Amino acid sequence: MDKCKLCLKESVLQESHILPNSIAKRIKNNGQTIVITNNRHPKAENSNFNYVEPMFCWDCEQILCKYEKYGTNVTINKNLIKRKGDDLVVFKVDFKKYYLYLISILWRAGLTNHREFSTVRLGLPFLELMRNCLLENKLTWQKIHLEDLISISIIKIKNEYPHLTDESIRKIIITPRLDEDNSQTRYYYMMYDGFVFAYYYTGHSSLIQNRTKPKFRLRRSTRNKFPAKGIKSIPIINNKLYDAQLAAQPKKT
Ligand SMILES: [Zn+2]
Side-chain half-sphere of 56: how many Cα atoms within 13 Å? Predict the structure, then answer.
């Protein structure tokens, strides 16, 4: 028996996935996954994408599963995501469901002991806020509005290499990295399923309202616009894609 990280009750813990299992299955299907991990010198490596850890009780797995069921469908559902010209995508999503789903990923990344996620250090106040919001399916806890603290931006990644396919772009994973934008706002970002997800927040230990919100962020709107950018514009990919391509080559027999 151990303590479930969501409800905090003593229970038999399940092998919980850090990134949703359905995404992992989708990515692993028919080929290798290229993972760019967040080492001091990031390098591309093939991975079985098996990031699991005993974290939640069975009941809480079901709670998280509801967020996942909604969220993991979005990136493959052509009714929910539409291209708008060459440089934009429109997400037609239920804000609360999709935002909490994306928060559940960041939260798990902040909890796990896997080294691939070690960059994510959110601090106890943030983790507690997220935990309570996820447990109660709410955006507010103790009068603190989660979306005032964490803004989430999404970028659709376009393939620019003739020898890569959209499908192979979807199999590139970037495990969480910490970066700063021009106004020195920090954000974590990760890539999977052909999208970069960036979480803008203000600090590790204090719950300060995030005043510099990114232009493209998930809002309480039924139509959210996000940029579509070429893969070469994502710095770490640009630096590392050569390695990734080499790793992606089928091994000669
Ligand atoms: Zn639980």
Answer: 22
What's the pTM? Answer: 0.89
Ligand 1 centroid – CA 7 distance (Å): 4
pLDDT in tens, 19-78: 888 887 877 665 566 777 755 566 666 666 678 999 999 999 999 999 999 999 999 999
**What are the residue ranges spanned by the domains of the chain?**
2-248
The pLDDT > 70 percentage for the chain reads 79
pLDDT digits (tens, 9 = 90+) for 164-212: 788 888 888 888 888 877 776 778 999 988 999 999 986 555 666 666 6
Please state, in angstroms and rounded to a whole number, the distance separating the CA atoms of residues 172 and 15.
Answer: 24
**70 C-alpha to ligand 1 centroid (Å):** 20
76 φψ region: left (φ > 0), alpha (ψ -120 to 50), beta (else): alpha
29 Cβ contact list (under 8 Å, min separation 6): none
Q: How far is the CA of 105 from the centre of ligand 1 (A)?
A: 16
Can you spell out the DSSP letters for 110-172? HH---GGGTT----HHHHHHHHHHHHHT-SEETTEEHHHH-EEEEEEEEP--TTS-HHHHHTE
